[in-house]
User: Which sequence fits this backbone?
């Protein structure tokens, strides 16, 4: 950072230092304190400029991340609005039917006594994954809500 020419009192102080008796110690201390204050201010300015650059970079990155999140959300919305294909719906219905067929086995008294067996299943539902067209998950859990409509 370029500095301007020293003020007139600077040269007056240099002349007093060369004169017999020199300059008073208090004047020298004041000048040293002023020079430290200038150096501290320059360092603070450098730190502030660095903080500004960092904040500007964070802003750009934040905007880019928000735009990417928006694009992803729009893609997810479009996928959900498109709905499941006929094949996905058929696969989900088949999974539900298979789970329903296994319900008596899961609810058998012998099964309930077994320590290794899971809790009896009263609710069965299936859904297709919006991101993977071939993925179908079947969930079996307790409840009395019934089965999702086909």
Assistant:
């Amino acid at each position: 950072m370029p500095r301007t020419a020293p003020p007139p009192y600077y040269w007056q102080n240099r002349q007093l230092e060369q004169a017999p008796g020199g300059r008073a110690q208090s004047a020298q201390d004041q000048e040293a304190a002023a020079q430290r204050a200038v150096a501290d201010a320059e360092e603070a300015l450098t730190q502030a400029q660095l903080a500004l650059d960092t904040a500007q970079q964070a802003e750009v990155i934040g905007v880019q991340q928000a735009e990417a999140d928006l694009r992803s959300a729009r893609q997810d919305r479009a996928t959900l609005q498109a709905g499941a294909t006929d094949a996905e719906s058929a696969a989900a219905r088949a999974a539900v039917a298979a789970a329903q067929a296994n319900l008596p086995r899961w609810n058998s008294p012998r099964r309930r006594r077994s320590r290794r067996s899971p809790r009896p299943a009263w609710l069965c539902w299936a859904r297709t994954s919006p991101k993977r067209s071939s993925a179908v998950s079947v969930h079996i859990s307790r409840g009395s809500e019934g089965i999702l409509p086909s």
